[in-house]
Protein backbone atom coordinates (compact mmCIF):
# COMPACT_ATOMS: atom_id res chain seq x y z
CA UNK A 1 0.00 0.00 0.00
CA UNK A 2 1.66 3.25 -1.08
CA UNK A 3 2.28 5.97 1.48
CA UNK A 4 -0.06 8.91 1.02
CA UNK A 5 2.03 11.86 -0.32
CA UNK A 6 -0.18 14.27 1.62
CA UNK A 7 1.65 13.18 4.78
CA UNK A 8 4.67 15.23 3.62
CA UNK A 9 5.21 18.12 5.99
CA UNK A 10 4.11 16.18 9.04
CA UNK A 11 6.22 17.09 12.08
CA UNK A 12 6.74 15.09 15.27
CA UNK A 13 7.24 16.57 18.75
CA UNK A 14 10.88 17.10 19.87
CA UNK A 15 12.56 14.12 21.51
CA UNK A 16 13.59 14.04 25.15
CA UNK A 17 17.09 15.53 25.60
CA UNK A 18 20.04 13.25 24.80
CA UNK A 19 23.11 14.02 26.94
CA UNK A 20 26.29 13.57 24.92
CA UNK A 21 29.04 12.04 27.07
CA UNK A 22 32.78 11.83 26.51
CA UNK A 23 32.79 8.08 27.00
CA UNK A 24 30.02 7.56 24.45
CA UNK A 25 31.97 9.56 21.89
CA UNK A 26 35.08 7.48 22.62
CA UNK A 27 33.07 4.26 22.37
CA UNK A 28 31.66 5.33 19.00
CA UNK A 29 35.08 6.39 17.69
CA UNK A 30 36.59 3.11 18.92
CA UNK A 31 33.89 1.18 17.08
CA UNK A 32 35.09 2.95 13.92
CA UNK A 33 38.71 2.12 14.78
CA UNK A 34 39.38 5.86 14.76
CA UNK A 35 41.97 7.18 17.20
CA UNK A 36 41.70 10.81 16.10
CA UNK A 37 42.72 12.79 19.23
CA UNK A 38 39.82 15.23 18.73
CA UNK A 39 37.45 12.37 19.67
CA UNK A 40 39.47 11.04 22.60
CA UNK A 41 41.52 13.76 24.23
CA UNK A 42 39.99 16.92 25.63
CA UNK A 43 43.29 18.81 25.44
CA UNK A 44 43.72 17.87 21.79
CA UNK A 45 40.16 18.99 21.06
CA UNK A 46 40.81 22.27 22.88
CA UNK A 47 43.98 22.82 20.85
CA UNK A 48 41.70 22.75 17.78
CA UNK A 49 39.40 25.32 19.35
CA UNK A 50 36.65 23.02 20.65
CA UNK A 51 35.49 23.28 24.27
CA UNK A 52 35.53 19.48 24.74
CA UNK A 53 35.99 16.30 22.71
CA UNK A 54 33.95 16.34 19.52
CA UNK A 55 32.00 13.52 17.89
CA UNK A 56 32.64 12.01 14.43
CA UNK A 57 30.52 13.49 11.60
CA UNK A 58 28.06 10.58 11.55
CA UNK A 59 27.58 10.43 15.35
CA UNK A 60 24.20 12.25 15.18
CA UNK A 61 22.75 9.03 13.78
CA UNK A 62 22.53 7.91 17.40
CA UNK A 63 19.95 10.61 17.93
CA UNK A 64 18.21 10.53 14.59
CA UNK A 65 17.92 6.74 14.36
CA UNK A 66 15.39 6.60 17.17
CA UNK A 67 13.66 9.71 15.95
CA UNK A 68 13.23 8.26 12.48
CA UNK A 69 11.79 5.12 14.00
CA UNK A 70 8.86 7.21 15.21
CA UNK A 71 8.06 7.97 11.62
CA UNK A 72 8.33 4.33 10.60
CA UNK A 73 6.14 3.36 13.54
CA UNK A 74 3.52 6.05 12.88
CA UNK A 75 0.37 3.94 12.42
CA UNK A 76 -1.15 6.50 10.06
CA UNK A 77 1.75 6.10 7.61
CA UNK A 78 1.33 2.32 7.70
CA UNK A 79 4.96 1.46 6.88
CA UNK A 80 6.04 -2.20 6.96
CA UNK A 81 9.45 -2.00 8.68
CA UNK A 82 10.59 -5.33 7.22
CA UNK A 83 10.42 -3.69 3.78
CA UNK A 84 12.44 -0.62 4.74
CA UNK A 85 15.90 -0.04 3.25
CA UNK A 86 18.14 2.92 4.04
CA UNK A 87 18.61 4.71 0.72
CA UNK A 88 20.42 7.96 1.45
CA UNK A 89 21.84 9.84 4.41
CA UNK A 90 23.13 13.38 4.71
CA UNK A 91 24.34 15.61 7.54
CA UNK A 92 24.87 19.37 7.66
CA UNK A 93 26.73 20.54 10.74
CA UNK A 94 26.52 24.07 12.09
CA UNK A 95 29.20 22.86 14.49
CA UNK A 96 30.40 19.44 15.63
CA UNK A 97 28.43 17.64 18.32
CA UNK A 98 30.55 17.66 21.48
CA UNK A 99 30.66 16.20 24.96
CA UNK A 100 28.39 18.10 27.31
CA UNK A 101 25.73 18.83 24.71
CA UNK A 102 22.15 18.14 25.69
CA UNK A 103 20.35 17.67 22.38
CA UNK A 104 16.80 17.29 21.18
CA UNK A 105 15.67 16.19 17.73
CA UNK A 106 12.66 17.45 15.85
CA UNK A 107 11.71 15.12 13.01
CA UNK A 108 9.58 16.01 10.06
CA UNK A 109 8.59 14.09 6.97
CA UNK A 110 9.98 16.28 4.21
CA UNK A 111 9.05 14.47 1.01
CA UNK A 112 7.12 11.40 -0.07
CA UNK A 113 7.44 10.09 -3.60
CA UNK A 114 6.80 6.84 -5.39
CA UNK A 115 8.79 5.29 -8.22
CA UNK A 116 8.93 1.79 -9.64
CA UNK A 117 6.42 0.53 -7.11
CA UNK A 118 8.51 1.73 -4.16
CA UNK A 119 7.93 4.60 -1.77
CA UNK A 120 10.77 6.96 -0.95
CA UNK A 121 10.39 8.97 2.23
CA UNK A 122 12.85 11.66 3.24
CA UNK A 123 12.84 12.66 6.87
CA UNK A 124 14.56 15.74 8.20
CA UNK A 125 15.93 15.74 11.75
CA UNK A 126 16.82 19.11 13.22
CA UNK A 127 19.20 18.76 16.14
CA UNK A 128 19.42 21.56 18.68
CA UNK A 129 20.69 22.05 22.21
CA UNK A 130 18.13 22.40 24.97
CA UNK A 131 19.25 26.04 25.08
CA UNK A 132 17.98 26.37 21.50
CA UNK A 133 21.28 26.44 19.57
CA UNK A 134 20.99 24.76 16.18
CA UNK A 135 23.76 22.12 15.91
CA UNK A 136 23.04 19.95 12.87
CA UNK A 137 20.43 18.75 10.43
CA UNK A 138 20.25 15.18 9.17
CA UNK A 139 18.27 13.96 6.17
CA UNK A 140 17.48 10.29 5.86
CA UNK A 141 15.85 8.76 2.82
CA UNK A 142 14.26 5.38 3.33
CA UNK A 143 12.89 3.15 0.62
CA UNK A 144 9.81 1.11 1.39
CA UNK A 145 9.92 -1.71 -1.11
CA UNK A 146 6.68 -2.45 -2.88
CA UNK A 147 4.97 -5.83 -3.12
CA UNK A 148 6.68 -6.64 -6.42
CA UNK A 149 10.14 -7.13 -4.90
CA UNK B 1 49.35 17.98 28.70
CA UNK B 2 48.60 19.65 25.42
CA UNK B 3 48.75 17.92 22.06
CA UNK B 4 49.88 19.91 19.05
CA UNK B 5 47.12 20.59 16.56
CA UNK B 6 47.51 18.34 13.50
CA UNK B 7 48.44 19.93 10.21
CA UNK B 8 45.59 20.80 7.92
CA UNK B 9 45.75 21.60 4.24
CA UNK B 10 46.14 25.26 3.34
CA UNK B 11 43.46 26.54 1.01
CA UNK B 12 46.06 27.86 -1.46
CA UNK B 13 47.53 24.37 -1.78
CA UNK B 14 44.18 22.83 -2.71
CA UNK B 15 42.77 22.73 -6.23
CA UNK B 16 40.11 20.83 -8.10
CA UNK B 17 41.70 17.44 -8.67
CA UNK B 18 43.75 17.40 -5.46
CA UNK B 19 43.74 13.80 -4.29
CA UNK B 20 43.37 12.88 -0.63
CA UNK B 21 45.48 10.04 0.74
CA UNK B 22 43.42 6.87 0.12
CA UNK B 23 42.77 4.35 2.89
CA UNK B 24 41.79 0.69 3.03
CA UNK B 25 39.60 -0.64 5.82
CA UNK B 26 39.02 -4.21 6.89
CA UNK B 27 35.55 -5.04 8.21
CA UNK B 28 35.07 -8.27 10.14
CA UNK B 29 31.99 -9.63 11.90
CA UNK B 30 33.35 -8.48 15.25
CA UNK B 31 33.55 -4.92 13.91
CA UNK B 32 29.85 -5.06 13.02
CA UNK B 33 28.94 -6.30 16.48
CA UNK B 34 30.97 -3.50 18.03
CA UNK B 35 29.38 -0.89 15.76
CA UNK B 36 25.93 -2.28 16.54
CA UNK B 37 26.59 -1.78 20.24
CA UNK B 38 28.07 1.69 19.87
CA UNK B 39 25.38 2.96 17.49
CA UNK B 40 22.34 1.16 18.90
CA UNK B 41 21.47 -0.34 15.50
CA UNK B 42 20.90 -4.00 16.33
CA UNK B 43 19.17 -4.96 13.08
CA UNK B 44 19.77 -8.72 12.78
CA UNK B 45 20.91 -8.56 9.14
CA UNK B 46 24.15 -6.98 10.40
CA UNK B 47 25.21 -9.92 12.57
CA UNK B 48 22.92 -12.92 12.06
CA UNK B 49 23.60 -14.89 8.87
CA UNK B 50 20.43 -16.98 9.16
CA UNK B 51 18.24 -13.89 9.23
CA UNK B 52 20.26 -12.11 6.53
CA UNK B 53 19.82 -15.06 4.13
CA UNK B 54 16.15 -15.39 4.99
CA UNK B 55 15.52 -11.89 3.61
CA UNK B 56 17.44 -12.61 0.40
CA UNK B 57 20.85 -11.19 1.25
CA UNK B 58 23.98 -13.13 0.24
CA UNK B 59 25.43 -12.91 3.75
CA UNK B 60 25.50 -10.63 6.78
CA UNK B 61 25.99 -7.08 5.48
CA UNK B 62 27.70 -4.09 7.06
CA UNK B 63 25.55 -1.27 8.42
CA UNK B 64 25.30 1.39 5.72
CA UNK B 65 26.03 3.94 8.42
CA UNK B 66 29.22 2.04 9.34
CA UNK B 67 30.42 2.11 5.73
CA UNK B 68 29.51 5.80 5.59
CA UNK B 69 31.48 6.49 8.78
CA UNK B 70 34.56 4.61 7.56
CA UNK B 71 34.56 6.39 4.21
CA UNK B 72 34.63 9.90 5.70
CA UNK B 73 37.76 8.98 7.64
CA UNK B 74 39.70 9.83 4.47
CA UNK B 75 38.34 13.36 4.80
CA UNK B 76 38.62 13.82 8.57
CA UNK B 77 42.24 12.62 8.58
CA UNK B 78 43.07 14.98 5.71
CA UNK B 79 41.25 17.94 7.26
CA UNK B 80 43.28 17.70 10.48
CA UNK B 81 40.29 18.77 12.53
CA UNK B 82 37.29 16.47 11.92
CA UNK B 83 35.09 19.35 13.05
CA UNK B 84 35.85 21.00 9.72
CA UNK B 85 33.64 18.51 7.91
CA UNK B 86 30.51 20.63 7.70
CA UNK B 87 28.45 18.50 5.31
CA UNK B 88 28.49 14.84 4.42
CA UNK B 89 26.07 12.75 2.42
CA UNK B 90 25.93 9.40 0.63
CA UNK B 91 23.62 7.09 -1.26
CA UNK B 92 23.68 3.45 -0.23
CA UNK B 93 23.87 1.83 -3.63
CA UNK B 94 25.21 -1.64 -2.87
CA UNK B 95 25.47 -3.72 0.33
CA UNK B 96 28.86 -4.78 1.73
CA UNK B 97 28.70 -8.51 2.59
CA UNK B 98 30.92 -9.46 5.52
CA UNK B 99 31.88 -13.17 5.55
CA UNK B 100 32.33 -15.04 8.80
CA UNK B 101 36.09 -15.50 8.54
CA UNK B 102 39.34 -13.81 9.55
CA UNK B 103 39.62 -11.92 6.27
CA UNK B 104 36.31 -10.10 6.42
CA UNK B 105 35.40 -7.49 3.84
CA UNK B 106 37.68 -4.84 2.41
CA UNK B 107 36.65 -1.25 1.79
CA UNK B 108 38.93 0.91 -0.36
CA UNK B 109 38.21 4.61 -0.08
CA UNK B 110 39.65 7.43 -2.16
CA UNK B 111 38.76 11.10 -2.30
CA UNK B 112 39.37 14.00 -4.65
CA UNK B 113 38.63 17.71 -4.38
CA UNK B 114 35.80 18.19 -6.85
CA UNK B 115 34.87 21.85 -6.33
CA UNK B 116 36.05 25.01 -4.61
CA UNK B 117 33.08 26.63 -2.90
CA UNK B 118 32.59 30.01 -1.25
CA UNK B 119 34.11 31.07 2.07
CA UNK B 120 37.07 28.67 1.95
CA UNK B 121 34.96 25.56 1.64
CA UNK B 122 35.82 22.69 -0.67
CA UNK B 123 33.78 19.71 -1.81
CA UNK B 124 35.42 16.30 -1.71
CA UNK B 125 33.96 13.44 -3.73
CA UNK B 126 34.58 10.00 -2.25
CA UNK B 127 34.73 6.61 -3.92
CA UNK B 128 34.22 3.54 -1.74
CA UNK B 129 34.86 0.15 -3.31
CA UNK B 130 34.30 -3.36 -2.00
CA UNK B 131 34.70 -6.52 -4.08
CA UNK B 132 35.59 -4.33 -7.05
CA UNK B 133 32.32 -2.42 -7.04
CA UNK B 134 31.25 0.97 -5.77
CA UNK B 135 29.11 0.66 -2.65
CA UNK B 136 28.32 4.35 -2.10
CA UNK B 137 26.84 6.76 -4.62
CA UNK B 138 27.18 10.51 -4.69
CA UNK B 139 29.39 10.41 -1.59
CA UNK B 140 30.30 14.03 -0.98
CA UNK B 141 31.76 15.93 1.93
CA UNK B 142 32.16 19.68 2.33
CA UNK B 143 35.20 20.80 4.31
CA UNK B 144 35.77 24.23 5.80
CA UNK B 145 39.49 24.93 5.28
Features:
heterodimer, A: 149 residues, alpha+beta, Thiol Ester Dehydrase, Chain A, five-stranded antiparallel beta sheet, 21% helix, B: 145 residues, 4 helices, 34% strand, elongated
Descriptive account of the structure:
- The complex is a heterodimer of chains A (149) and B (145).
- Chain A has 149 residues and is an alpha+beta fold.
- Chain A has a domain at 13-20 and 59-144: Thiol Ester Dehydrase, Chain A.
- Chain A has helices spanning 22-31, 37-40, 42-47, 61-72; strands at residues 18-19, 84-93, 102-115, 118-129, 134-144.
- Chain A has a 5-stranded antiparallel beta sheet, with helices on one face.
- In chain A, a hairpin with a 2-residue loop joins strand 3 (102-115) and strand 4 (118-129).
- The longest helix of chain A is centred in the middle third of the chain and has 12 residues, at 61-72.
- Chain B is α+β, with helices and mostly antiparallel strands and 145 residues long.
- Chain B is 22% helix and 34% strand.
- Chain B has helices at 29-39, 49-54, 64-71, 73-79, and strands at 19-27, 85-92, 105-116, 121-130, 133-134, 136-144.
- In chain B, strands 1, 2, 3, 4, 5 and 6 form a 6-stranded antiparallel beta sheet that branches.
- In chain B, strand 4 (121-130) and strand 5 (133-134) form a beta hairpin.
- Chain B is elongated.
- The A-B interface holds A 27-28, 30-34, 36-39, 41, 43-44, 46-50, 54, 56-58, 61-62, 65-66, 82, 85-93, 95-96, 139 and B 1-6, 25, 31, 34-35, 37-41, 55, 64-66, 68-70, 72-73, 76-77, 80-83, 85-92, 141.
- Strand 2 of chain A pairs antiparallel with strand 2 (85-92) of chain B, so a sheet runs across the interface.
